[in-house]
Amino acid sequence: MTIFPKPPFAEQPQPLPGDARRMDPVPDCGEESYQGAGRLAGKVALITGADSGIGRAVAIAYAREGADVALSFLSEAAEAQETAALIEREGRRALLLEADIGTPTNCREIIRRTVEQFGWIDILVNNAAHQNAIPDIADIRDAEWDLTFRVNVHAMFWLCKAAVPHMRPGASIINTASIQSDKPSAQLLAYATTKGAIQNFTNGLAQMLAPKGIRVNCVAPGPVWTPLIPATMPAEQVAHFGEQSPMGRPAQPVELASSYVMLADPISSYVSGATIAVTGGIPMM
């Protein structure tokens, strides 16, 4: 309740995709706090949106649990390089993959390069997302709707389709859904719709891949302090972001990492088709 920052925060607008280094407070991705226990020793993970926020926290945790990590990111090369350096500091290998995942060609190339570097994929984390707060459907451009679905839903399909042939029994796919899956905000119509689709896709793919020994699950975060917040929300909402949660604050990215580790851990061998809600006490419907 007290070790992480609580609002009000400074009003701090940023352009998309946002830069964690310019946020106040800077998000805690576990750089100094996450302690690993070797639960993913020898595994190979591919994480999208891995330069900052939840993706960065998961990448750090996976490396400290013993995994090599391929980091897919859109454009913030400096942040991605910082994340890669943290992985390599743990004695693990890092692969930087700068690409727009909104095309099937780029998604297939990300998988190809990961397999070329590491030989296979044990864990695929579909975490990259696009969102924009738009209060009126009349103002949602067709291109905005299309972009949200291409990044949040289509890329997940393209990446899974390309990755599965390189995944062995015991592998794990983890998708990032959201509390918006069940409790959509009107101003996030496109984003919330995609998150509902992600949860449904997860449930269906879990059944489809069970005979191959591949588990599929998703994590549904509540409010999390990531660069998407100042980059996509009005400044006055950023100042009070997470204030209405039972804990009175948003999560820091490091607080999500343990869920992704648990779902990737081979000891969770009967967990598939599940949604892990990490909402700080906000109920999912």
The secondary structure category is alpha/beta
CATH class: Alpha Beta
CATH architecture term: 3-Layer(aba) Sandwich
Number of strands: 7
Q: Determine the strand fraction and express it as a percent band.
A: 5-15%
**Element-level helix/strand string:** EHEHEHEHEHEHHHE
Which segments are poorly predicted (pLDDT under 50) over 5 or more consecutive residues? none
Structurally, how many domains make up the residues? 1
Radius of gyration: 17 Å
Could you say what the CATH topology is called?
Rossmann fold
What profile does the largest beta sheet have? 7 strands, parallel
CATH superfamily: NAD(P)-binding Rossmann-like Domain
Distance between the termini: 24 Å
Number of helices: 8
Strand order of the largest sheet: 3-2-1-4-5-6-7
Overall mean pLDDT: 96
What is the percent of helical residues?
25-40%
